[in-house]
Design brief:
about 300 residues, alpha/beta, eight-stranded mixed β-sheet, two-stranded antiparallel ribbon, 10 helices, globular
Length: about 300
């Protein structure tokens, strides 16, 4: 784990969506970047804070410092809630992401997508490939396992907001200790500060609970439609796939199929972690840093 966070380490950016919502992103600036910028896209209910430790590591890397941006989708984190919950879809979130990239001047960026963020990255490859140049998929692929979707559907919009940060840490430990046996209670309490917003010093809801309505449209009685056509759009880019060894959303067989279909794909199994790897351990962070550096444009 890195040192406790300091708000001076990043800048908050607010921008307007195409339908006039106030959306939020974090920017970790670098005085003299030596690599392409990174855009981090979180999971379904998560937010920009998920990437804080990775962002610090990349922005302050001794050899390859680079600027990092991390988004809060509409209805998450510090972004405004949408009155129309039907808009909580990967396509609308892709449009918001592309708008942000235009505003921030991000072209041929490195995209790091966790779960839903990886789905958005695959869609971006088909819709606006010039915006990206290298991709990291964190525990997501073209086949999404029903078991994992069922688990996620069980807590979206239903997880209680704890009264204290200690309670929040215990809640997260109880929910995740099987998939993440190496994370202790103190670390879970720290992670709770990423998952929940803060209000008057206490945990607060960090996403619109109506997100459950949009996610609930998935018919779990049938296998989720595969995303192989979208994944095919990534063939022109170097890709790193991270898989939690205990993941219930991404099977090893799917990763093997991705390796077979992609001419320039590397994979890393993150031991003792489930869905999705936390991007805080040294091995994973350094793997990402070296992978990005190996695919930077010539100096």
């Amino acid at each position: 784990m890195l040192e406790p966070r300091n708000s001076a380490e990043w800048q908050d950016i607010y921008y307007a969506s195409f339908d006039d919502l106030k959306l939020h992103a974090r920017h970790y600036p670098v005085a003299e970047p030596k690599g392409r910028p990174v855009l981090c896209l979180p999971g379904l209910t998560r937010n920009a804070k998920d990437f804080h430790y990775l962002a610090l590591a990349l922005a302050n890397h001794k050899q390859w410092p680079r600027e990092v941006y991390a988004l809060d989708y509409r209805g998450r984190g510090l972004s405004q809630y949408d009155r129309h919950w039907e808009n909580y879809t990967p396509y609308i979130e892709l449009l918001d992401t592309l708008d942000f990239m235009t505003i921030a001047g991000l072209h041929q960026a490195a995209i790091i997508g966790t779960s839903r963020g990886g789905i958005i990255a695959m869609m971006m490859a088909a819709v606006r490939p010039t915006n990206m140049a290298v991709v990291v998929l964190n525990d997501v692929g073209p086949i999404i396992e029903t078991r994992g979707l069922t688990r996620i559907m069980g807590y979206v919009g239903r997880m209680p907001v704890p009264k204290t940060w200690e309670d929040a840490g215990m809640l997260l430990r109880d929910m995740n200790e099987r998939a993440f046996p190496g994370i202790n209670l103190t670390q879970w309490e720290e992670i709770a500060h990423d998952i929940f917003n803060e209000r008057k010093g206490r945990p607060a809801q960090s996403y619109d609970k109506r997100l459950a309505r949009a996610f609930g449209r998935i018919d779990l009685s049938r296998p989720a439609p595969d995303l192989w056509p979208q994944f095919a759009g990534l063939a022109q880019f170097p890709v790193l796939v991270l898989r939690g060894a205990n993941s219930d959303l991404l099977k090893p067989e799917t990763v093997n199929a991705m390796v077979e279909r992609h001419p320039n794909l590397r994979e890393l199994t993150v031991e003792r972690q489930g869905h999705a790897p936390l991007l805080r351990d040294r091995e994973t962070v350094e793997m990402i840093a070296s992978f990005l550096a190996s695919n930077d444009p010539p100096a």
